[in-house]
Specification:
Length: 411
């Protein structure tokens, strides 16, 4: 039984929730939740335009979902045709809407905001292993009048997702925001979403992913991290290759929509598709990183290459060819250090990002952090999608012993 003296009320977005006084509410994470709501809202809009049946044949689902990265948010989305989805209302239940699973819901604040602010939702399941947390979830469901749309569940997040697969009740969206690494949940997560479903994953173990404990990074993510100037982007690429590797075991592959390094954590939004043919290309999207310990120059060595054979859709896969087999850097004579494998394909879907920016700019009152969302996504949209990692200007000038030029001139 919850004592009224032990709770505090928190308002965020359209939600008003009760939290235990012993629990620290971090307002910094409002950006995370605002961004997630914007992304899922855009995803839900696409789902309502082109719903994919969970009970249809595999061929039909594949046809509706696939064609690699051209899949998701192109043509009709870019044209700005919102007529159908403008009639949708947040807080209402839609039988053909999306089904959302939050595996580590705590008080349920995030899920409550989903229910109140995302249009086109069928059902939200807020899960937590702690019975006290589930009590607060149920309390907040009633407080926000969401009993028609939102359910609580007490159980292990991984087991809950395995059960959903076994029962053929796959989710359209899975959101995981753990304390630390999400690695123990990834195997179940990539199986728990439908074809074309959306994964929203947070990693807060930034020190591990940025090279402070490469042995732990190797054990958890299957890749060696490097402590370098580009460590934050490399961390994102390690997370994506780990997700893709988990998906590949089940003839599935990922398509990143948005990948961001924010404050003390990393947040990635990816779609998951099923296709044995496309999974074969996953090895061409991963590479090892060679970085000189002296001058900081680096190069990537792809794990494999796809060579076109008969017809446009037939490929022969061969081992990758890359950097010369030399121990010393050709620029300064120092040794190389090796990291990876990392995801070497694009981090974002530029068209999708532009749609989110438009959505947020059209309704800034819905997002308290709208300026930051638009700012970070605008930077992401301007990145070179086919150039992994980067050089830092002042580091290059330090190696060359010269005065760095004005950054505005370089831009």
């Amino acid at each position: 039984m919850i004592s009224e003296n032990s709770i505090t009320e928190v308002c965020e977005g359209k939600a008003t929730v009760d939290l235990p006084k012993s629990v620290f509410y971090n307002p910094v994470q409002e950006y995370n939740r605002d961004l997630t709501i914007a992304v899922i809202s855009e995803f839900a809009e696409q789902h309502m335009k082109n719903p994919v049946s969970q009970t249809g044949s595999r061929a039909m689902r594949r046809k509706a979902a696939c064609q690699d990265e051209k899949i998701s948010f192109s043509e009709d989305r870019v044209s700005g045709n919102h007529n159908e989805t403008h009639t949708l209302e947040a807080g209402q239940r839609y039988d053909n809407g999306i089904k959302i699973f939050e595996g580590l819901a705590a008080s349920g604040l995030r899920s409550v905001r989903f229910g109140l602010e995302i249009p086109g939702v069928k059902e939200i399941i807020a899960n937590d292993f702690d019975k006290n947390a589930v009590e607060f979830i149920e309390r907040n469901i009633e407080k926000n009048n969401l009993s028609h749309l939102m359910k609580s569940k007490c159980g292990d997040a991984a087991m809950s997702m395995y059960e959903s697969k076994a029962a053929n009740c796959l989710f359209d969206v899975v959101d995981l925001d753990p304390y630390g690494s999400p690695s123990i949940f990834l195997d179940s997560t990539v199986q728990a979403v439908r074809d074309g479903g959306l994964l929203c994953i947070t990693c807060t173990d930034a020190a591990v992913l940025c090279g402070n404990a490469l042995e732990k990074c190797s054990a958890i993510y299957g890749a060696v991290s490097l402590r370098s100037k580009f460590c934050h982007e490399m961390a994102l690429r390690i997370i994506l290759q780990c997700l893709d590797s988990h998906a590949n075991r089940y003839s599935r592959y990922i398509v990143p929509l948005v990948s961001l390094s924010v404050d003390f954590y990393f947040r990635v939004f990816v779609q998951v598709f099923t296709s044995q043919k496309q999974v074969k290309h996953s090895c061409t999207k991963k590479a090892m990183v060679y970085e000189c310990v002296g001058c900081g120059s680096f190069g990537l060595q792809p794990l494999a290459q796809a060579i076109p054979t008969r017809g446009e859709d037939n490929f022969k896969f061969i081992p990758g060819s890359g950097l010369p087999l030399t121990k010393e850097c050709k620029h300064c004579g120092h040794n190389y250090r090796i990291g990876g494998p990392i995801w070497s394909a694009p981090l974002h879907d530029r068209q999708f990002i532009e749609r989110i920016i438009t959505r947020v700019q059209d309704s800034p009152q819905l997002f308290n952090t709208h300026d930051r969302i638009c700012g970070m996504l605008s930077v992401a949209a301007e990145e070179l999608h086919d150039v992994p990692l980067y050089y830092v200007l002042d580091a290059v000038c330090s190696v060359l012993h010269c005065q760095p030029p004005n950054m505005m001139l370089m831009r």
